[in-house]
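Subject: mismatched residue count in predicted assembly?

I count 159 residues in my input, but I want to confirm that the predicted structure covers every chain. Input:
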Amino acid sequence: MLLALHPDWQTRARAEVVEICGGRPPNADSLNKLKTLTMIIQETLRLYPPGLSVTREALQDTKLGDIYLPKGANLFIPISTLHHDILIWGPDADSFNPLRFARGVSGACHVPHAYVPFGVGARSCLGQYFAMTELKSCSLWCSPRSSSSCPRRIDTRPF
Ligand code: HEM
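Triage response: the counts match. Full output below for your records.
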């Protein structure tokens, strides 16, 4: 849907796939070289994180900066809210702009730890590298063979 609304990015992704894969099946090397596709996926996971939140329980009395967490307290970390904070991402936080990831996550925002589509720390998503490989492989197969367009402007503002 986002690529249908942004044909310029659709064209860039397709050109990259054709240039790097040239009709050959993907391998670890070519998947690593797909920078535009990676940026598009990262931006999509920022705007629409499939996991809306992660939770943690304090197993002992803990101090996080100025915040005191008694043993047993539950922390609710709203991923979507972090991903749309204009103080972290700038005034275009709600816009689809894959270019913000051109210099990786640390170049995309003021607080890199606020980008957490796969969660954070020791219990972060076990399948994140597999998921990224899968997402790239699927997009890679589709992009040279099909194109999508959206006949009218639809509201894709994040929830
Ligand atoms: C786009 C795809 C995916 C997204 C956005 C996603 C996101 C997440 C998130 C947010 C968590 C919670 C992490 C935390 O609490 O810090 C999680 C946990 C987990 N994910 Fe994924 N995930 C994806 C795909 C997958 C796949 C493909 C697999 C397995 C093949 C997988 C396996 C797991 C497992 C096992 C955990 C629990 C890890 C633990 O508690 O130690 N995920 N994922």
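The chain has a mean pLDDT of 90. Marking this ticket as 'not a bug'.
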